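During the second year of the project, the team shifted from modelling isolated chains to modelling whole assemblies. The rationale, set out in the original proposal, was that interfaces cannot be judged from single-chain predictions alone. As a representative example for this report, we include one of the complexes processed in the last quarter. Its constituent sequences, exactly as entered into the pipeline, are reproduced here:
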Amino acid sequence: MSILHTRNVQKHFTEGRETVTVLRGIDFSVERGEIVSLEGPSGSGKTTFLSILGCILTPTKGDVVIEGQQVAEKNLATIRRRSLGFVFQQFNLFPSLTALENVEYALNVKGMRGSPARVEAQRVIDAVGLGDRQNFLPRDLSGGQKQRVAIARALAGNAPILLADEPTANLDSAVGSQVLDMFRTLAKQENRALVIVTHDPKVRTIADRVAKIQDGALV
Amino acid sequence: MAVDLATKSLLHDKLRFVITVVGVAFAVTLVFVQVGLFLGLMDNASLTIEQIDADLWVTSHNTPNVDFAHAFPETYVKRVRSIPGIARADNLIVWFMNVNLPNGAVEGTEVYALEDFAAWHFPQGVIEGDLADLRRGPYMMLDDSAKKRWGAFGVNDYREVLGRRLKIIGRTVDAKSFTTTPLTFMDLRLAQSLNESDLRGNTTYILVKLAPGADAEKARAEIQRRLPYNDVFTKAEWAKRSRSYWIDSTGLGLNMYITVFLGCLVGIVVVAQTLYTSTMEHIREFGTVKAIGGGNADIYRILGKQATIAAVAGFGLGALQAFALRPVMSKIDLKLIIPTPLYVAVFAGAIALCLAAAMISFRKVASIDPALVFRT
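Output from the structure prediction step:
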């Protein structure tokens, strides 16, 4: 059974008097432990679709079911906390927190505090190979290291679904490959579903499946 | 323990933090100084009333405050003394007189004249001389605050009051009036003889001490019945009336309220502006908080905590500045009275002010779209 699936997801935005249709009825699913690369040209609607999968936006029409639970406006934040981990293109780390604290804070938001949060944060920071940099502020880390902190943050708390938006876009080719390999290894080890929105062809090398989106529909 | 994002984020940008704290401290200092000076002036306005050990004051009708006295027959005191429940009643003259200084200048003095100062425990700050000696001749005691306007003087010096040489036989401290005119203490008969046209056979107040257990209202009503053209006040009423006169007639109260309001306004604008700018600069971080599962409440807590930290630090700095100003003010004869309730009120006010300032950012936070975390 899929851990995440959508049925006939549509999204319209209103701009002035005009209604713009961004998604035209997408049926999509991901299994536990599966890695999916979601590709498409700019403006195809892939980031909007990722936002809907990530419970950041709600669809205008259609259903999203995550871990058997229907997504609705009222439970967006709850599902985000419980089931989802995010990795962003811009890393989006808190600049005033160390690498370890960035991860621990995400756990705090999810409701885990004190020693258990610190232990879990330490575990994932070690898992991404940043044990020796855990007390560094983001400004003192390289791009690849920042992205590894972001991955650690997404992994922390055992969210079963990981969503990544262009995770290699701000990294050079070699570092991007390393990060992807590590991401794949960790996701597979822990049986997490991973959806990566990307332009980067390297992502295909780690994906179990490639989904293409064009003009708001899967092709 | 949770990771303290609010504090770490606030202290991460030290310059902004300093600007915020200085803004709050400015408002706090302004409020302390303005209110403190106001209380100091008001304290002067009723200082002698508070010091004189009288339960009731009989004044001429419509006397606005203790300094601006009007004369009435001194024999009225006998009508008061005969009332049951009154332990003691004495005449008190408060009158402005001119003093010729050795350098040829003429200065004013506010004379307090009684037959027995000791009976009324007044003045309280005698540092040289004996009040009982005032009755023995053309003598006076002077408050040290006169030195600023009259120049140096000492015991056994002479000064000419309304053309008559009086010997200084003692000195006091902390006897002040709102008018800042130096206070002089002398015998009642001497004061009457110095200004016969106004004061001969007259007094300006009757001080009343009630017998233990006497009914103040009953005594007061009886005095009022016997002296229908005078007013009778309790000590508290008379002190309040004297203070209110200066507050109402000089616009001092309004001035204080306006300055306090402006101080608070400046503080709130500085804090609101810095917090709002900070919120705008951290908007992506707040979007991230939402994206990883946090809600508006999590961000409100961050902003609220930052505002509270700024308030506490600003209050500390502001209070310290106000405290440091006290001796400076004292050197220029200004009293800065900061009672504990004022500290508590300003502390609570600073926190309320900063939280109110943070509310402006709350509105922005409520509209943050977490989808912004996907934008480049």
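Chain A has a mean pLDDT of 91. The two ends of chain A are 23 Å apart (CA to CA).
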